[in-house]
Amino acid sequence: MAAPWPSPVPAAAKNYSNLRVHLWQRSVGKEALNKPGASDAIVEALATIIDEDEGASDWLVVSYKSHSVEDMLRKALKANNGERLNFLTWGMHHGTNAYAHCRRVVLIGQLTYGTSGYRALAAACGVSVEEDVGPDLMAGEYRHNLLQALTRAHVRRNENGVAGNCQAYVIASKNVGAFDLLSEVFPGCMIERWAPDAPEVCGRAGQLIALLEDGFTNKVKRIAKKDLAAALNMKGPNLSRLLGESDVVIYLAERHLRSEHLAIVYPELFEPYPGGGFTIDQLDAPG
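Predicted structure:
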């Protein structure tokens, strides 16, 4: 009698808590970037954050081949940071470890294949080309390309299942659901809204958001609403109305904060499987 099959190996979970993603959702498809001056705002925003970095990190920028920002970005920088910049184009964003030293990575847009391309992929998977390809295949390919592009940078240098320290600036079209997809691909990462073209949240809403951000810095699990109201010098009903303002609602959703009856509850930190798992470096190793 043949020996029974061994129990399946538990899934190896990776911890991406060292990855901080700044997400800017705006029109950034190829057609949108064809409009005159469409890339100027992107280049200006990137030049600002790279100059603010003041030589501390190497950068990897992934953009469309047909809309390369390399020349524009180098010219826009105030400091001579050219030696710290590295560039790849979508389609060449995989299969290399040459940029693993880059602790800052920028993704401009997303790689899409068009209707015929997705139908070809579906056919290769055994799905009839007569059937509707649907959003699942598109979302799956988007997740795949996110993983490949971001893990060209230092985030790939994981140890014992914990990813390397890295900050990503992702500029994605509004209709792709980038926030949820990033959360799925990089469990445990921190995602925050990055909106250079949007006015800063001011007033009491801005003060409340700053207090809640301090909670992330101090790694608290919950903040009592009475403490928030006291810090803002306001009464409970006024705090409840403030929590319902659109800027605050968007912030709570993006940061996965949960508003309960008496407190704001912070998301639980992702914990990797205790047994560890394969690292990307191990998978890249020959033999």
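Summary: The chain has two domains: 19-188, 203-265.
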